[in-house]
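pinned: reference chain
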Amino acid sequence: KNRGLSDAIGRDRLDREAVAAAEREIGSLQAERRRLLEALERRSPEVRRLIRPRLLSSADVRGEVLTANQAMLEYVVADDRIYLWVLTKEAVDFRTIPLSRKALEEALAGISPLFAKDRTFPAAGLDHRWADIRAGRLADLYRILVEEPAGGTVRRHPELIVVPDDLLFYLPFEILVTGTEDGRPRYLIEDHALSYSSSASLLNPELTAGRNAPKGLLAFANPIRPDERRFRLPDWRRLLGRVKSALRGGRFDPLPDSEREVRAIARNFRDSAVYTGRRATEERLKRMAPDYRILHLAAHSEISEIQPMQSRIILGGKAGGVEDGDLRTIEICGLKLNADLVVLSGCGTALGKPSRGEGLIGMSRAFLHAGVPSTVASLWPVDDASTAVFMERFYGRLKAGMSRTEALRQAKIECIRSRDLIRDPFYWAPFVLIGDWRGIDLR
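pinned: its structure tokens
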């Protein structure tokens, strides 16, 4: 007994020493982080504005951010209810939604496995049949989150800016069902252009100033690592693409449609550069990206919601080299870019780790830190073939002079009204615009 007690005391002492050592290391790292941020802020006013953006009051948002056509819906998810602020150019209203966090979690899980608590997806066979998105549940959630607390205001404003919180970061409000039309669901996106932000303060016009890239589009697709062997897909695999879809994540299969995608969207630009296969390297992206107004990455991604700074886009590179091909979130933060828009047409690129007071920590926030005011990214795994079609439609509408949100809206409406499988929200709904919604002159 004495030996057992002595061993227990020894283990407890070692545990306490380990905890103390870990706390000292954490404190040291936090102090080093503060020093680095302060050094960055001293060297660059742009970085200072992004790291510590000017906090906007509701009056500031109404006066400096919102237009007469816009309404902002800002949600806060508490344990026992949801709070909602509704801001327009004319007024600000506050509402309480009687839905607990647990009930919200259950409601989302009831819509589709895409919104299940663990958000794990099968490596293969993921398509609209597996997703099984249920329109009736989407109608229920629309009524609770939008119609009852803010329906009148929403109907008067064709453009919506959603500032989500917690579990709502994973929901594309576009798929909320507002009613039926000709026997099919009518989705919110059919009546409203939508964009998202982690914070109203991140829409400060000061953060979008100074875009000066001289060139148009830089696009990367279907990267191959130097030591990777890749075989051409047989014709039968292409023909059965809708039976066995290629996803832009998971097993890192070839993405032949992504190459068609970037070549098609490049036709919208007078000045574009497209790199595929072994030429689509991390080194080339980092070297060339500061000169381009739009960056488009059609590649596999691997997202970590536990360590979001280690999430990565899979590009070409060499193991052990200076640029290994893994473009990680933490590396994106260190870039200095001049782009108006980044499009990440891979799997789950809009995901990250929700953080109280910080919003969602992930790739879109990293590109904002790098100087890019808006990102189009995805909320779940995406299909290679349908994504190529969707992106062609999106860029075609940007070229026609539409705003970023309206271009997305029109591309989604065309999908909804298609007779192809792309009409299912699994294929068109994951892509959302985070940040600046305005148009881009592609001339």
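why pinned: DSSP finds 14 helices and 18 strands in the chain. The two ends are 83 Å apart (CA to CA).
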